[in-house]
Design brief:
alpha+beta, 45% helix
């Protein structure tokens, strides 16, 4: 979130979904095919060139340490894309990985395994675009 605020010269804390969609439209008009914004405790926002727009809410968990949440998110997202998942499914997986990571202390010890992430996703309701 802080990196996106610096990049776009805008405050994203508290920005509503319509404003996120407008920002995504501006960014995608400049050439990128996809935009995925990490929004900290709010979750993530995904926008694709083909018109998909979705706010993926963060999964409510007891927060112990947020040190590596962004790293967990990035790694999980990239891993699922490489495995062939669509952007939305990869983003959902990444959101769950980040949620699990904040429940533990430290950076490396907080990284969840794929099985843990999949188990968390099985008990989470899925919001459709």
């Amino acid at each position: 979130e802080s990196e996106a605020e610096q990049l776009f010269h805008r405050k994203l804390d508290g920005i509503d979904e319509n404003s996120l969609a407008n920002l995504a439209q501006e960014v995608l008009a400049d050439g990128p095919q996809n935009l995925l914004l990490k929004l900290g405790s709010r979750g993530a926002y995904l926008a694709t060139k083909d018109g998909q727009r979705m706010l993926l809410p963060a999964i409510a968990v007891p927060v112990v340490d947020t040190t590596a949440a962004g790293d967990a998110f990035n790694g999980a997202f990239a891993t699922r894309l490489v495995a062939g998942d669509a952007s939305l499914e990869a983003a959902r997986f990444a959101t769950a990985a980040a949620a699990l990571s904040v429940t533990r202390h430290g950076a490396l010890p907080s990284m969840p395994g794929a099985g843990e992430v999949q188990a968390l996703l099985r008990v989470q309701p899925q919001r459709r675009s």
